[in-house]
Amino acid sequence: MASTVVTGTLVRMQVTLVQLAADLDPAANRELVVDSLRTVDGQDLVVLPEAMMHDFGPPEHDLAAAAEPLDGPFVNLLSQQARRLGSTIVAGMFERTDDLPYNTLVVLGPDGELVTTYRKIHLYDSFGYRESERLRAADIAPVVIPVGDLSLGLMTCYDLRFPELSRALVDAGAEAFVVPAAWVAGEHKVEHWRTLLRARAIENTVWVAAAGQGGSRYSGHSLVADPWGTIVVEAAGGNEQVTAQMTVDAVRRSREVNPSLANRRMQTP
């Protein structure tokens, strides 16, 4: 069972990012998740990519038909795995509605209970892609949750390009951002991914833990960046896992030395 490590005043959260490439078969994706989590042990937080329940597929693929409810097979599987590991698990799915589905992150606690959801605010209508034709954008409702001694703000993929969301998360108390993604591969994309993740860490003095899909369609490069923007661990492009420790003291120290949040003069309404 996972437990946050305390040494004096130093609180360390163990996090594992599980980089996988999902496909269009939900049952196969569930098996892939189970197989990948067999080697995970003693982690406070496990982060899986966006759309891990079912990949986006080609532009004409009907995501409404593939979407599941929050008590469906995918969330039930994550509940079992969270309880088995004693870890908090964050993963992406398509959530069924009576119309277009939501692109949703689910958070399962160590007891297997559904702690919260985050429905993606910014849909990926960019680089020639139209996510809004198959999914619905959520209402603007930033989500911050406590896990151990850290408060985690949730973002999904394209949200990363909107710094106003990260500011809203920090204003709500976030000390780390968790960013599941399916960051489409292409020219400039890996550099955009790294740069934006580091920028969100630096400007908000927070940890950033980002788990992306790998494989040929997506950029991979899941990573953890510290509140100074230093990448402490990074994956390559395939199916793999990376593990890091995130500390509360690193957030506190960076905010003492670099009090940019306290020095703001332009506040978000």
UniProtKB/TrEMBL annotation:
The keyword Cell membrane does not apply. GO terms for molecular function: hydrolase activity. Pfam families: CN_hydrolase. Keywords: Hydrolase. The keyword Hydrolase applies. Transmembrane segments: none annotated. Residues 13-248 form the CN hydrolase domain. It comes from the Bacteria. Belongs to the carbon-nitrogen hydrolase superfamily. NIT1/NIT2 family. This is Hydrolase. It comes from Aeromicrobium flavum.
